[in-house]
Amino acid sequence: MLIAANINPDEMVNLFNLMKKEDHQIKMPHYVSTHPETDKRISRLKIIIARAKADGHVYQALSSDNDWEQIKKKVFHPKAQSDNFS
Q1: From CA 23, how far away is CA 36, in angstroms rounded?
Q2: Whether 6 contacts 74, CB under 8 Å
Q3: Which residues does 7 contact at the CB level (< 8 Å), separation at least 6?
Q4: For residue 43, is pLDDT > 90?
Q5: What is the largest CA-CA distance in the chain?
Q6: Nearest 5°: CA angle at 38, between 61 and 5?
């Protein structure tokens, strides 16, 4: 979703790494979890990011004054948004 909206997803890897630090406190079998294991999420995300970069995908820079509403429009309505985020 972030790639489709031209928002750089690299920071998602950092977010999942932060989550991984907390994983040691909660151990449950993968078959009862509602989400993939954090390591698997990180690996999959890195593959998706690498493919996008290999395909030449370039992300638009977000200006420092973007608010949450602008970001939501960009993520959830990427085709309809007409704002210039560079």
Answers
A1: 12
A2: yes
A3: 59, 60, 62, 71, 74, 75
A4: yes
A5: 46
A6: 25
